[in-house]
Amino acid sequence: MTALASPITLTTLRNLKRNAQKFACLTAYDASFAQLCEDAGVEVVLVGDSLGMVIQGHDSTLPVTLNDMIYHTANVRRATRHALVMADMPFMTYVRAEQAVFSAGRLMKEGGAHMVKLEGGAAFVETVRAMATNGIPVCAHLGLLPQSVNKLGGYRVQGKDEASATAMLNDARAMQDAGADIVLLECVPATLAAQITKALEIPVIGIGAGVDCDSQVLVIYDMLGITPGKRPKFSHDFLRGQASVSDAIAAYVSAVKSGTFPAVEHSF
Ligand code: KIV
User: Would you say the CB of residue 214 lies under 6 angstroms from ligand 1?
Assistant: First the structure.
């Protein structure tokens, strides 16, 4: 696939949602993989703090620092001309609204991120509002929050009962109202993710959240089948049967856009 013609912006993503056209998101942590994503037409490249696990070898994302994120985001930005680059705000870098604004500011000024992602819902309304006021586009990550793994007691599907499902829908609405530009849902029942996607005007990116989200994201090492250990249920090895990494990423983009990924077996 040829590179996209003009830079992807939040307006592009909103228009895609309005026109019921899906877009693709994939993680990348360096220039080489970012270039392959760019060439395959991935609209959003996420520099995820999953790099703490897949690059640095930690057993969670908690040890990742703001400087780590800035370093990897800058590497990704050097290889992207069209894709929108989203960078994760690491654990403990957005405890207070003012701290969040300055942490995000560093990711944008020094790393070149177009937008940032933080984990949390209604409790972060003031934070997201302060960021929006300062011109910082935000993605609110809901559902399974990997930075809260110790509090959650493990990596588990969230929103399974009625009370937690309603709370997540309210969180998503609160984030949109506070000025968030995207919501990301991780490990959420497909029916709930579909309901949230329908209820919001802003785009919803899913991972383990069923096919009805406006977009999908995967950790690139998972979808290339090179993450050690058991592959998560929501992922798929797109390299199997393909001749190259480029072909695997192109297959992923095509499957996301056509709605053939995720299938029922990848969903909860
Ligand atoms: O850090 C990351 O890669 C993420 C995705 C799993 C959504 O947040």
Answer: no
66-78 vs 97-109: helix crossing angle, rounded to 10? 30
Instruction: pLDDT tens for the chain, 268 residues: list them.
Output: 444 468 999 999 999 999 999 999 999 999 999 999 999 999 999 999 999 999 999 999 999 999 999 999 999 999 999 999 999 999 999 999 999 999 999 999 999 999 999 999 999 999 999 999 999 999 999 999 999 999 999 999 999 999 999 999 999 999 999 999 999 999 999 999 999 999 999 999 999 999 999 999 999 999 999 988 888 999 999 999 999 999 999 999 999 999 999 999 999 9
Residue 254 Cα to ligand 1 middle (Å): 21
Domain ranges of the chain: 10-266
CATH H-level, domain 10-266: superfamily: Phosphoenolpyruvate-binding domains (3.20.20.60)
Nearest Cα residue to 141 out of 119, 125, 110, 115: 119
pTM for the predicted model, two decimal places: 0.97
Q: Is 186 one of the catalytic residues?
A: yes
- Judged by DSSP in three states, 175 sits in helix
CA atoms within 13 A on the CB side of 184: 26
